[in-house]
Amino acid sequence: MARKDQTEDYVNPVRRLLVGILVLFMLATFLIWRIDNPRVERFRMMVIDTVVPSFDWAMAPVTGMVNLLSDFQSYQRLAQQNSDLRRELQDMKSWREAAIQLDQENARLRDLINVQLDPQLTRITGVVMADSGSPFRQSVLLNVGARDGILDGWPAMDGIGLVGRISGVGEVTSRVILVTDTSSKIPVTIRPSGQRAILSGDNTINPLLSFIEDPDQVKPGDRIVTSGDGGVFPADLLVGQLARGTDGRLRARLSADLERLEFLRVLRSQPTARIEEAGALLAPMTFPTPEAPDVTAEAEEASDG
After folding, report:
1. Domain locations in the chain as residue ranges
2. Which residue in 152, 145, 113, 110 sits closest to 129, CA to CA?
3. Topology (CATH level 3) of domain 123-267
4. Is the pTM above the cut of 0.90?
């Protein structure tokens, strides 16, 4: 019992001494880290350079746990993305089946009404090599040109909507003036009202719609397609939707994504034949002439009588 008391008398002072030293050390560390002095700063950096590298072994378990937690979170995100992709794949399969059915139905309907599609309206796909890089000229450069049969004025589209027209053809390259360029003027039709207008580029992402026949019959959200007037473009090429800008003017929200153009489809658009005379449109009308009486036969019948 006495030995136990002697041990306690020895341990308690040592414990209090160690606690006091620890408190003093922490207080000194706090004061050193709070003093703003160049010499103290050099001392702090010397302590950091001496102590921190030797603590790599002590930080290894913490670093390992942090990396393990990060990997686990990454695996969770991958699992969630995998689940989302599987769900989207199922949706795409259903859409694919619907598209196949619609394509078959479209083919049957075309066969029933004996539709003759324009064989000249084929397309050439080109890769966008560069853009103008100028705020005053909106154009891109394609890697197809005269050797591919490209001609000036042909329309260019991305996967959805109209992008612009060919304006300048080289042997292996061609330039496309975008619909947002100030020199671009395209006749369009606003559906379903059928109002005609001019799509005018103004170097903004949403070109203006001017010269609308009756603005009261159109509203934001209406579809905008090419009208085919003037032989500039074929009719019914999708342009976008009608929208009202912040300035209150009617503009087009383009279906084509002009900020991320990678591939463009150039449509072979053959010019339509001009009718110079009204008579060339309608065939001349012919009327049956009454038969002349056979005078010889009547004379023979009279002589016989």
Report:
1. 2-51, 123-267
2. 145
3. Thrombin, subunit H (2.40.10)
4. no
